Amino acid sequence: MASNTGNKTKTVVKTEEQVSTPALFKVLMHNDDYTTMEFVIEVLRDIFHKSGTDAEKIMLTIHFQGVGHCGIFPYSIAETKADQVRMRARKAGFPLRCSLEEA
Q: 52: domain range?
């Protein structure tokens, strides 16, 4: 768009910003025969900020169904939380595993 202001011509460029929301991913925690129920609840409370009641419900789902849903996050946050679970479990001597699934 050009406008004439006397002898000078000004050009104004309009750009449209496109903001897109990042893809979201579910963090899933998997059952194993070694990780204690107490440890799973602790991880759900500390890393995923679940209440005691919610953590216990998720832990029971993991125990009885083999997998439980811990939360939905942008990819980088989901990946970080899954890594935190893995590192904390390894440090405690447990094989607890998390995976990501597109939401």
A: 30-102
